[in-house]
Amino acid sequence: MRMRAKLGVVTGALALSALAFPADQATAVESSQPTVSDVVVNGGKPIVAGTGSVTFEVSLNASHPTGVKAAELDLFRGLGSWLLVDDTNGVSWLDCTPVSATTSHCEGTITGYVVGKDHATGDHNVNVLYSNGQAGTWDVRVGAVAGDDSRLWNENFATHKVLRQSVLTVNASPEPIRKGRTLTVTGKLTRADWAKDSYVALANQYVKLQYKKKGATSWTTLKTIKSASTGVLKTTTTATYDGSYRFVYAGATTTSSVTSREDFVDVQ
């Protein structure tokens, strides 16, 4: 099992699903249960998956007067989708290190794989993203086993966002350009399609065009435009001074925010 040897082997404890704790164990006297705190998933940021795979870190603190033998954390979404801590033995144990006689700090790594719609519906949906319907809010579930074998299992400890990645490009032309002339700024907004394992056009989304004068430290929003059905962005502005242009997309309920690279324009 994936835990430090000095924690020993815990039998019949945390497993891959809500069956990790049978009902009689889950309803143990609350005062004797371990406690879990300081849960962190991906540094507090949404998990953003594009194509291929996405890897992120998780951690928590678990405490009990008799110490902590083991702890678990996973993410779960309806219709049987799990994101579990990487473990070749099939048990999503965290790697726990005692920080005192009663408390352990536990960490783990989770990797999710975008596999496309051809993922067999009969397969276990563990650590796979194959449908765009999986994007959104996931439940963060935690568990712990104390030194006296008392147990905690909480299926609704918190929630966390798992989002489809968006990509945004920009190009300002012509370069260089004379002051007062019309500058054309183009780009494209796309989003990961987990069913296709590729990026597709993201249409009818509001995107900001921003400008930063050479030597300045802050950006100014010049205008807000809407992406076409093909995801293409196109607008114009008047060239004034040397500076950089970029597009900014705020994101949506199931889609990540994104800022394009900067495109510097020499105004002569």
| Secondary structure: number of strands | 21
The CATH topology of the largest domain is given as Immunoglobulin-like
Strand-and-helix sequence, N→C? HEEEEEEEEEEEEEEEEEEEEE
Distance between the termini: 66 Å
Biggest sheet: strands side by side, in what order? 2-11-10-4-5-8
Beta-strand content = over 45%
- Contiguous low-pLDDT stretches (5 residues minimum) are 1-30
**SS-based class:** mainly beta
CATH architecture of the largest domain: Sandwich
DSSP helix count?
1
Q: Major sheet: size, sense and barrel closure?
A: 6 strands, mixed
Overall shape = elongated
Q: How many domains would you count in the coordinates? A: 2
Assigned CATH class of the largest domain: Mainly Beta
Helix content: under 10%
Mean pLDDT: 88
Radius of gyration (Å): 24 Å
Summed up, what is this model?
It comes from Streptomyces glaucescens. The chain is mainly beta and 268 residues long.
Task: Walk me through this protein's architecture.
The structure is a single chain. This protein has 268 residues and is an all-beta fold. The protein has 2 domains: 5-163, Sandwich (Immunoglobulin-like), CATH 2.60.40; 166-265, SOR catalytic domain (Immunoglobulin-like). The protein has 1 helix and 21 strands. The protein has one helix at residues 23-26, and strands at 35-41, 47-49, 53-63, 68-77, 81-84, 95-98, 103-114, 125-126, 128-129, 136-146, 151-164, 166-168, 171-173, 182-193, 198-201, 206-213, 220-226, 232-238, 243-249, 258-259, 263-265. A 6-stranded mixed sheet has the order 2-11-10-4-5-8, with no helix packed on it. Strands 1, 3, 6, 7 and 9 form a 5-stranded mixed sheet that branches. A hairpin with a 6-residue loop joins β16 and β17 (220-226). Keywords: Signal. Residues 1-22 form the signal peptide. It comes from Streptomyces glaucescens.
